[in-house]
């Protein structure tokens, strides 16, 4: 997934914008630009500044949604992978437990058969009397 994201130029640009927009540098730059705009650019800066800020908010929200969609896709793929891994592990453990149970059952039966044979031989062997 990371290789796919790294190969796509559009996703790299979106990642960079989202990372930058979530930084304090973004905030500092905007504070300086908006202050400069209000002081030096126009006599009545509010209408144009409001338009610019609204457009920027629209684009930034689109980048945030792109990032959330990609993160959701990554999370879904990871969950699918984890589920398949756990299912494989469960299947392996079940087979192992079954194999061990069969082997224990054979060993117990063999031991029980050995004790029964030993008991029959003990009855047939004459005992010495004093």
Sequence stretches where pLDDT stays below 50 over 5 or more residues = none
Structural class of the helices, strands and pairings?
Answer: mainly alpha
Strand content bin: under 5%
For the sheet with most strands, the description reads: none
Average pLDDT confidence is 84
Q: Helical proportion?
A: over 70%
List the total number of helices: 4
Measured between the Cα atoms of the first and last residue, the distance is 88 Å
Q: Over all CA atoms, what is the radius of gyration?
A: 38 Å
> What is the string of helix and strand elements?
HHHH
Architecture overview:
The chain has 130 residues and is mostly helical. Helices cover 89% and strands 0% of the residues. It contains 4 helices and no strands. Helix 2 packs across helix 4. 0% of the residues are buried. The model has no long low-confidence stretch (mean pLDDT 84).
Task: Give short descriptive properties of this protein.
4 helices, mainly alpha, rod-shaped, 130 residues
List the helices and strands and how they pair.
Elements: H1 2-7, H2 9-21, H3 24-41, H4 46-124
Helix pairs in contact: 2-4
Brief account:
The chain is mainly α and 130 residues long. The chain is 89% helix and 0% strand. Helix 2 packs across helix 4 (46-124).
């Amino acid at each position: 997934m990371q290789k796919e994201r790294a190969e796509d130029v559009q996703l790299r640009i979106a990642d960079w914008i989202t990372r930058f927009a979530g930084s304090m540098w973004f905030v500092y730059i905007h504070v300086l630009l908006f202050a400069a705009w209000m002081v030096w650019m126009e006599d009545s800066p509010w209408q144009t500044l409001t338009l610019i800020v609204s457009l920027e908010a629209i684009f930034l929200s689109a980048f945030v949604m792109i990032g959330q969609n990609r993160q959701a896709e990554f999370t879904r793929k990871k969950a699918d992978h984890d589920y398949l891994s756990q299912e494989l592990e469960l299947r392996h453990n079940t087979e192992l437990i079954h194999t061990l149970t069969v082997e224990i059952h054979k060993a117990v039966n063999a031991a029980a058969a050995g004790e029964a044979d030993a008991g029959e031989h003990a009855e047939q062997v004459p005992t010495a009397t004093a």
